[in-house]
Amino acid sequence: MRDPLRAVVVGVDIGTTSTKAVAYDVGGNQLVHHSVGYPLDEPHPGYAEQDPHLIHAAVLESVRTVVTELGRQVDGLAFSTAMHSLIGLDNHGTPLTPSVTWADSRASRQAERLRGIPSGLALHHRTGTPVHPMAPLPKLLWFAEQEPQLFGRVAHWVSIKDWILLRLCDALVTDHSVASATGLLDIRQLSWDPEALGIAGITEEQLPELVSTTTVLPGLTAEAAAATGLPPGTKVVVGAGDGPLANLGLGAVAPGVMACSIGTSGAMRVMVERPGVDPLGGVFCYALTERRWVVGGAINNGGVVLDWAGEALAPELGEDAEEELLALAAEAPVGSGGLIMLPYLLSERAPHWNALPRGAYVGLTHVHRRAHLVRAALEGVCQQLALVLASVRAAGNEVREIRASGGFARSPLWRQMLADVLGMPVRFPTGREGSSFGAALLGMQALGLVASIDVAADLVHIGETARPEPAAAATYAALLPLFSELYGALVPTFTSLRRLAPGLPPGPA
């Protein structure tokens, strides 16, 4: 009889830029990992799409490499995925469209139109998903209006994870977590929302079967088993979206414990036991299980802002200049000498859920230098997260602890800055891939290897805590209202810029 303590589950995290496969034992120990990258295509302004076949190949390669290096039995696979993706399939399950990602903003006008109708906010409250171009609902409306012939040929609309599972297990299903981020699911009834389907112009039959995130599929097909090096009977747990799973992977499963991440983008989420959205619609609400939900907000502009600063403000530093840029930012004082940056380089999501915003520096004077501009950019990212935190609290949620992860955590400056801006201690768990570990934990519960996902709180260990420095925290607290009010003040300017943009001369080749 197999020793349950030797059980292994591979968490497979289908991300925006790569797929990671990580093997974990039931003690939460990371055994083997491998990742495979792929491009994000931007063929036209506002487009952000991917070749689903490349992602499928990345899943197979990452799992196969882990299985080979592990050299022992794998008890199951469990999946995490970037949310809001959309693919149109024909009757044979072949993609008719690329995978349209969360970063795609082509449906901006459709989203604005939906937000403007009397039932727009009600849709957000009912589905948990903000009416924003990131979401599949406005994307479906875009396809119906801009590609009507293609739209009419689509037999099924799915997410990237749904399609991967179709290829691996020959099952067309979508989990409640991914579905709760489409704008098409009634989160209280856990069924497709008739009004949303009517707006999108699709039927329930064109969507996958709704299943729990802990659903165990029959197993890999013979073809998928051969490609991954696993036995055909290997169990596959459907899994969930990467946001809710990141909370699980950080051990942020108890009410009041918030997970914060800053990678390319950023997010703040807190676990709750019942679904709900604040009256103003400042937060999202996505499922983890039927009894666990995350409330929070995502921002488009995280580490990408530091990348931009390197390219635009310090190009002589070349690529991989993160340490030099952070050292430059450290030369400027807290508050950047009164310089504020709205870091909306890729538009923005929470808490306003509007694709209009653009980046801006405000308060620039002759005394500001490059160090001030770089630091203000980092401060802007943290201040935007502070607005998300305020929205989560406005939705009636207690936040008593913050756990953070992501590439930014390598920087002592940025860690301290986040604690100072949020005005709360920020705890940093020791190294694990949050979403893949969350997927593996969910898989362990589904397979009966652990009693409950609540074990996450015991398996995650805190390595460091950044505590706010009183003087810095006071400075940022004074600046935050100014940062917040700039959005509303500049909306007319953003609107005019969008109208003028098509007629402006293009940049250099």
From TrEMBL:
Domain Carbohydrate kinase FGGY C-terminal: start-end pairs: 258-446
Organism superkingdom: Bacteria
A single GO molecular function term of this UniProt record: kinase activity
InterPro entries: ATPase_NBD, Carb_kinase_FGGY, Carb_kinase_FGGY_CS, FGGY_C, FGGY_Carb_Kinase, FGGY_N
Domain Carbohydrate kinase FGGY N-terminal, first and last residues per copy: 9-249
SUPFAM superfamilies, alphabetized: Actin-like ATPase domain
Stored CDD domains: ASKHA_NBD_FGGY_GntK (cd07770)
Keyword Kinase: yes
Keyword Transferase attributed: yes
Biological process according to GO: carbohydrate metabolic process
Keyword terms of this UniProt record: Kinase, Transferase
PANTHER family in UniProt: GLUCONOKINASE (PTHR43095:SF2), SUGAR KINASE (PTHR43095)
Family: Belongs to the FGGY kinase family.
Protein name: Gluconate kinase, FGGY family
